[in-house]
UniProtKB/TrEMBL annotation:
Keyword Transferase part of the UniProt annotation: yes
Protein name, UniProt field: Glycosyl transferase family 1
All copies of domain Glycosyltransferase subfamily 4-like N-terminal, residue ranges: 34-197
PANTHER family reported in the protein's UniProt record: SULFOQUINOVOSYL TRANSFERASE SQD2
Keywords: Transferase
UniProt entry tagged with the keyword Transferase: yes
UniProt cross-references to Pfam families, sorted A to Z: Glyco_trans_1_4, Glyco_transf_4
Gene Ontology terms for molecular function: glycosyltransferase activity
Length: 400
């Protein structure tokens, strides 16, 4: 029997998409909270409000991180070895195929290049149904963080085969669109950027009393980390950079927002002598997350795995500068020297120099933070999600 979950949205449609039926395949729709699956849930919310029908096929667990938006059909899966919080879809079972055939989608949207994603694309191609893939992370970079960097060319080749079997790709940043084309992943790549909730992420959420409760003095600048605590987020680069700041005598505290399997490693590798000591507050949501983000002074994001960088946009919306690796995602958001600083990935000396500039110059921090907030205000979720619907409709109207 199929596991079926749903959420009633009850919001008025603004642009009708009646007759559009989207089958969405995701390796993680809601059982672990991250930027990718939250973007997918917002997309489904938008499509349903516009009159489309959407059915999502993804692993289902007993206690998901958040309630799924729209109907959710369970796909057989197994826990990923060493990362048991994530599950790997393993089969397009007979029950799922029967449900899929009954739904009779007009478009198949695949959000992860896993086994079931491959099978879903094959299912669509066999029936002449457009297949769209959204790219949410740079999977080819993951092996380098676990000592298997030599496998990266093989991963790139596998992704190229998968993405070229799709009719079109959608990617969340202009830099990622360019990279996918450069890598030969597909010739048809559209932009699906990300939005930000200004009721949560806004400078007014800053709370100095809350900071004091964490042992952070009002005149003590805060370097923030926001995201899953996993090695592929660049935790080693972050820790080494903070150690450089400590040795240089740059006064600061580190505020870490998030949870993950590498939390213990991160705690062990941040300085312990009071100058740069990390304050870990775990996973935050809603207004609590907005308060924590706005109470930083600068975000440090050394990761090169993001295709967009939701956390970067959220911090910018709070009127704060960002020091980030000059990689896909961040390059499309951070205006180097105006809203933050872009640094060669892994260059801890330059990262420390960029951070020190903000930590010692409040006027520079305010100026770049204000510019970042202005940039973030351009991102409207409904306008952004309509771009995905436009890709669906373009493929449906093309001669096939």
């Amino acid at each position: 029997m199929l596991d079926l979950q749903s959420k009633s949205l009850g919001e008025e449609a603004v642009q009708p998409l009646n007759g559009l039926r989207v089958a969405l395949f995701s390796g993680n729709y809601n059982y672990v909270r991250d930027g990718a699956n939250q973007a997918l849930n917002r997309l489904v919310d938008y499509l349903l409000r516009q009159g489309a029908q959407v059915r999502t096929y993804s692993p289902v667990v007993d206690n998901p991180a958040f309630e799924a938006t729209g109907p959710l059909v369970n796909v057989p899966s197994i826990a990923i070895p060493g990362r048991s919080e994530y599950r790997l879809p393993v089969a397009l079972s007979a029950a799922v195929k029967k449900d899929l055939a009954a739904f009779d989608p007009s478009v198949v949207h695949v959000a992860s290049p896993d086994v079931v994603g491959h099978k879903a694309v094959t299912w669509a191609r066999d029936r002449g149904i457009p297949a769209v893939a959204s790219v949410h992370t740079r999977f080819e970079t993951y092996p380098r963080y676990y000592g298997f960097g030599f496998l990266e060319p093989l991963v790139v080749a596998g992704l190229r085969r998968f993405y070229n079997r799709c009719d079109a790709l959608i990617a969340p940043s202009e830099s990622m669109v360019a990279l996918l084309k450069e890598q030969g992943m597909n010739d048809d790549v559209s932009l699906w950027t990300r939005g930000v909730d200004r009721t949560i992420f806004h400078p007014s959420m800053r709370d100095m009393a809350w900071r004091r409760s964490l042992g952070i003095a009002d005149d003590e600048p805060v370097v923030g980390f926001l995201g899953r605590l996993v090695m592929e987020k660049g935790l080693d680069v972050f820790a080494e950079t903070i150690e450089r700041l400590r040795k240089q005598g740059v006064r600061h505290k580190v505020l870490v927002i998030g949870e993950g399997p590498a939390r213990g490693w991160f705690e062990d590798h941040l300085p312990k002598d009071g100058n740069g000591t990390g304050v870990f507050i775990g996973h935050q949501m809603g207004a609590d997350l907005g308060r924590a983000v706005a109470s930083m002074d600068v975000l440090f994001n050394p990761s090169v795995t993001e295709t967009f960088g939701n956390v970067t946009l959220e911090v910018m919306a709070c009127g704060l500068p960002v020091v980030a690796a000059a990689a896909t995602g961040s390059r499309s958001l951070v205006n180097d020297g105006k809203t933050g600083a872009l640094v060669t990935p892994g260059d801890t000396r330059q990262f420390a120099k960029a951070l020190a500039a903000y930590l010692t110059d409040p006027a520079l921090t305010r100026a770049h933070g204000d510019a970042g907030e202005a940039r973030a205000s351009e991102n409207s979720w409904d306008r952004i999600n309509q771009a995905v619907a436009d890709t669906y409709l373009r493929l449906l109207s093309a001669d096939r």
